[in-house]
Amino acid sequence: MRHAVDVAVADRRVQFEALGAFAIGAAVLAALGLYGLLASLVAERRREIGIRMALGADRGAVRRWLARQILVVTGAGVGAGLVAALAASRLLQPFLYSISPRDPLAIAATVSGLIALIAATSYWPVRRATSLDLADALRRD
Q1: Could you list the residue range(s) of the whole structural domain that residue 9 is in?
Q2: Phi–psi pair at 103, nearest 5 degrees
Q3: What whole-number distance in Å separates Cα of residue 22 and Cα of residue 16?
Q4: How far apart are CA 71 and CA 58, in angstroms?
């Protein structure tokens, strides 16, 4: 019986494994793109960060300032994504087994994963921004 079930669901299993692989690839590409965007934004604000630090802001204050800006953009993106996902939930219904497209646990897990991904990709640009040489940052441009 087990063999018959395995044969019956083999096509679906391959489709879902491929879908999972593409989802992981998309998450990696999104993380790389987000890292590049954040690194670019921090590089553009290098002089502003240098001025803030020269006027007395410590590294922690600058990190909190940058993290707050990233969280605002993250919140807007996650909010827009939730609205789009809930709007498209009817289209996803045929592909879901034993789970509702509006399952709060699945949505919370997805949002938590996205926030963790954003936090991980924003760590290095923020850290690099607060470890810059003040004289070099103020001299540029």
Answers
A1: 2-139
A2: -65, 120
A3: 10
A4: 20
In sequence order, what DSSP letters do the residues of 108-130 get, joined into one string?
HHHHHHHHHHHHHHHHHHHHHHH
* Cα 75 off chain centre by: 11
Q: 89, 104 in Cβ contact below 8 A?
A: no
16-30, 48-62, 98-112, 127-141: the lowest-pLDDT one: 127-141
- Per-residue pLDDT tens digits for 29-70: 988 988 888 888 888 888 888 888 888 888 888 888 888 888
- Which residues neighbour 127 within 8 Å (Cβ) at sequence distance 6 or greater? 63
CB of 118 within 8 A of CB of 74?
Answer: yes
Return the structure tokens found at 67: 């993290």
In the chain, the number of structural domains is 1
42, 129 contact by CB (below 8 A): yes
Token code pair at residue 108: 């919370």
